[in-house]
């Protein structure tokens, strides 16, 4: 009845929980709430400056300032980036997970190779693909030239740079999606496959009617993580194009307005809130649809 003892010892779990809770409040919840508050003020990055409440002026500036056209382009580009990354990354991750789950020889090696880009970090990934996509001496351009007689500027192209950023993002994180799908695949009871085999089901029918429904939670987790990750990505853009060549997204705009813009902190705070609300809407919609699919199955 008293697993932690009597008296003051009964409150030991609560005391231990206070440590991570305090860290969460200080380093996450607190700054998040201050960002919301600052979005309604004219706060600047100048020490000792006065802070005045300006209502929705910062939110009006987000969508109606002199560069509002670029802002809308960034929003549309962010949604496009999220949709493509979410679909392709999870599709490729699922395919790799299904192949590796077939008990291939050296499957642990393949897992490590596919997951390696995740742990390399953005700087290393940007450097690797910067060298691969070098327009003068990169191997990809040499391959293009030898096969198609065509050369590209890659991260320096106004029409193709964003596509190569999407490719780099997918290449970097598809191993993460693969591991989550692989964990879901390995939790499917083998007896179900054996029963299906006895009934004469094909591999596609087994995947469609047994595997796919039972790994629905893995789909939900991967979709949520992909949406949040894609709509929050700015580092790979910063490391490859620095927002040039039509590659700016909302996350990059938040970074630029905060660290490279004016001393005003209200506008980037409002941008952060708008970005959070967009992510929230897409995540809630995705969770609702995925949960509905789980119930149906």
From TrEMBL:
Looking at the UniProt record for this protein, which Gene Ontology cellular component terms does it annotate, in alphabetical order? plasma membrane
Q: Transport: is it a keyword of this entry?
A: yes
Where's it mainly located? Answer: membrane
Q: Which UniProt keywords apply?
A: Cell membrane, Membrane, Transmembrane, Transmembrane helix, Transport
ABC transmembrane type-1 domain segment(s): 75-286
Membrane topology label: Multi-pass membrane protein
Q: Does the keyword Protein biosynthesis apply?
A: no
SUPFAM superfamilies membership: MetI-like (SSF161098)
Highest taxon, organism lineage: Bacteria
Q: Pfam families from the xrefs?
A: BPD_transp_1
* Location relative to the cell: Cell membrane
Where does the sequence pass through the membrane?
12-30, 79-100, 112-133, 153-173, 214-238, 265-287
GO biological process, any: transmembrane transport
- What family does this chain come from, according to its entry? Belongs to the binding-protein-dependent transport system permease family.
Q: What is this protein called?
A: Sugar ABC transporter permease
